[in-house]
Request: fold
Amino acid sequence: MMQMVEVDRRAVLAGFGVGAVAVAANARIGAPSAPHPRVRREIRDLERWFPDDLNRLKNAVAEMRKSRAGAMAWDKNAEIHSRRCGVPSGEIHRTLHFLPWHRAFLWATERNLQHAIGDETVSLAYWHWPVLGAVPASFRATPLAHDRTRLDLFAHEYAFQSAMDSAEHYVGKIEEREGWPVVTQLGFGGYDVVPGPLSVLEGTPHGSVHNALGKDMGNIKWSPRDPLFFGHHANLDRMWETWRGASHSARRRTEPWQDRLFAETVFEFFDLATGKTRNLRVAEVSETAALGYRYALPGEGVDGGQPVGTSTSGQNQNEVPDPALLGVPLASGDARIGLPTVAVSIAEEGKAKAILTVQGIQIPANQGGTVAIYLFDRKHGAFSPRRAAFVGTIGLVQQDTATEIAIALDVTTALRQFPIESGRIGVAIVPVGQDDALSLAVSGYAIEIVPQ
Ligand SMILES: [Cu+2]
Reply:
């Protein structure tokens, strides 16, 4: 599958002609409408300290959800997302366009909300999952309520720390070793302009939080029908900004703004003001300041408020799922251990890391769920959570067609804490807290030791 992906990309690149065209990363979409950028705040902060801002958002959503001539502007806006899911070209999931497309979608939706009530100060809010670990009160009542399976979250579902820790470079790197495609760098928001492995961020917390809420939110195409979609994706957008750090940080420079296929792609959005399509180039959404907004920290600008959840390092033990929630492994097998190109050990901090790739994960149509990945020593025989190292969780969001995906995870810490003495590493994929059955087939597992 992945060799195919590489061939496709080269073919498309050839169509554009050789010679990269530089794209200014600071492209502007006209001046921001207000002298100060709009501030997107955490939902609980709006509830407690900024009721006027929350009311503006509620009124605008209520207006867009009203039926006019049998059609709702809200659903027309949501439909834009469905056109980019499970499509032969222009897919915005499992690609590099995951973060920029959703940023543009939030921005276009925010403009529509402003237009709906004729107030350009309407701003989206973000849902920082760990603050409450549940759906905020304001999103449980009309007009922000929606049909959802669950209102509480498990910590392993909003495990953003793993995504932050694994976010080495925005662009993942895939190498071929002994005829086997191996991910040697972990893409934060994707790997390529065509669908490739699922990035850590897109699996968890993105996919797992979608799955937790279920109903429309658990359906990749129609998730934006739920108003909380925009709170969820605003927090992912904020994580992107947090990961980038200060302007022009080294991380920001690793982003593929020089890649024309990435940066010059044009996406269409629904524009309520004209009833027509509004186009946005990916390069136009590189800077939040140019789009006229910024994110406040949770509790920012509030007397006595404490910023929370701002740490971007360290392991969060709460992310390990409760063993009582684990089901029977959906798939397990031995990992191929790639020979390191130079003799390095992962035991020493900063010398090398171990990357696990799981290839050819077949997900049947209309099935989704959150799975946990474990490593275990094969000398003990079959998998048991009590004798295994937890690696991370991956949220696989339901699609209406069967899909094949690959995932890559940093297993350095897991292997340090749980040395595999026999050298035979087993990998298990275990469903977490699922009522409905999910079935998976996997073609193989590989662990690569990558010098740093
Ligand atoms: Cu999406």
Notes: The first strand starts at residue 38 and ends at 40. Residues 81, 93, 102 surround copper (II) ion (CB under 6 Å).
